[in-house]
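Just curious. Invent one:
>
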Amino acid sequence: MSEKGKFLKRINRFSVLIEINKKKVKSYLANSGRLKEVLVKGAECLLIKGKGKIPYKLVAVKKGDIWVSVDSHLPNKFFYELYKKGEIDFLKRAKFLSREFKVDGERIDFLFLKGKRKIFVEIKSCTLVENGIALFPDAPTLRGKRHLDLLSELRKRGNDAYIVFVVQRSDAKSFAPNSFTHFDFSKSLYRAMENGVKVYLIVADFNERERELEKIFIKKLDIFEILVNEYHLWRYPEVFINFKKLKDNSYYLDFKGETCFYCSFEENFFDFIYFARER
């Protein structure tokens, strides 16, 4: 049974204050991210009864016309359900071995086995979306960077390694690392991809009635698409890039935007190249 209320304020990392039927109640928040773009005073909230001392648990917040799930535990459960349904292409015919597998002092969310190859999968929850681009992280994450570095190392040892960004809202089209928030995480992501770590994006809608995530699409991301998205994070609307991947794996580029009228293609192109080299 769920109830609705209005968000008032964040008390601390894992608790918030909600107004329900004109009464202020404390609610548990299963998310350590900042969530400042989602947890806005007066926003409509969806809650369920709490199991501990705190009377309620906050599960989702309304942003515009969509619900955003704020439960960071939900993506792992959702991913595992997709695996069991056979909807994760790189895990077809793979055997599940373990959750929270400990390796080199860290824990990786999932371990699978396909043939004789181990497959390590780390899941990251996204709640921040700007201009259709899902962004992670929304707060500096040394743990997240360590996970990327570990996935790189595991790949070097001959294993398969994946990082999957699960977007808990329906308005994302693609993904970029949030280098405004944590530049080193962005650099580690590109380094991991260069070492063979694969990046996937899963965009899901939050079902208010069932309080579950429902898949919209699953997409493998290449390094160029991610880089262009991150470039837009810094340059849009002054400059943005339309691009198309061609059959020979080259790219067609077209630079547009507010300042492009005054700049040559070469100037914009070399700005993009310099941006990429910084990473």
Summary: The chain has a mean pLDDT of 93. Residues 14 and 230 are 30 Å apart (CA to CA). DSSP finds five helices and 17 strands in the chain. Residues 142-156 form the longest helix (15 residues).
